[in-house]
């Protein structure tokens, strides 16, 4: 694969999961990637003795942007032990960026930003219709490399 080739979306997601698992291992966590049938949870991470664990959902984009697509479930699926790691792949030559965000923050952000989006109008002036698509942005890099937020 050359640096100019675009990855298939499934491979982008898989790459993100393995990259996050590797980053967690480098930080002393035990990280296990779940099977594809574990909805909303891509990685289970625990401390070295296994006495504490967290669940992680990984969202990866391959365009380097600090914006990721979610679904409506993100507004209500949260707990103190659930995190999102948003990965922005930046080609083969650069290290990806990782944005680590507690799930409650993601829930509040997606609910608020989607509500604001609905208040707007289409280009033709008509009202926007609700959909299940949500978006999370970290343009200010508030959560960039914030691995310290994962407490085990």
Q: Secondary-structure map with pairings?
A:
Blueprint (H helix, E strand, L loop, with lengths): L8 H18 L3 E4 L9 E4 L6 E9 L5 E5 L10 E7 L8 E6 H17 L13 E5 L15
Parallel strand pairs: 3-5
Antiparallel strand pairs: 1-2, 2-3, 4-7, 5-6
Annotation keywords:
152 residues, alpha+beta, five-stranded mixed β-sheet, two-stranded antiparallel ribbon, 23% helix
> How many DSSP-defined strands?
7
Helix-strand category: alpha+beta
Distance between the termini: 38 Å
Radius of gyration computed on alpha carbons: 16 Å
Largest sheet: 5 strands, mixed
The percent range for strand residues is 25-35%
Low-confidence stretches: none
What is the average per-residue confidence, as pLDDT, rounded to a whole number?
A: 92
CATH class: Alpha Beta
Strand order across the biggest sheet? Answer: 1-2-3-5-6
């Amino acid at each position: 694969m050359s640096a100019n080739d675009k990855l298939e979306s499934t491979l982008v997601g898989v790459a993100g999961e393995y990259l996050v698992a590797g980053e967690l291992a480098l930080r002393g966590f035990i990280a296990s990637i779940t099977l594809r049938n574990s909805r909303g949870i891509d990685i289970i991470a625990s401390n070295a003795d296994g006495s504490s664990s967290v669940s992680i959902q990984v969202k990866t984009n391959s365009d380097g942007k600090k914006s990721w697509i979610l679904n409506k479930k993100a507004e209500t699926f949260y707990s103190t032990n659930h995190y999102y790691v948003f990965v922005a792949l930046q080609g083969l030559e650069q290290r990806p960026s990782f944005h680590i965000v507690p799930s409650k923050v993601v829930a509040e952000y997606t609910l608020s930003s989607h509500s604001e989006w609905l208040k707007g109008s289409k280009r033709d002036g008509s009202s926007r219709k609700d959909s299940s698509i949500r978006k999370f942005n970290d343009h200010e890099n508030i959560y960039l490399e914030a691995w310290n937020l994962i407490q085990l």
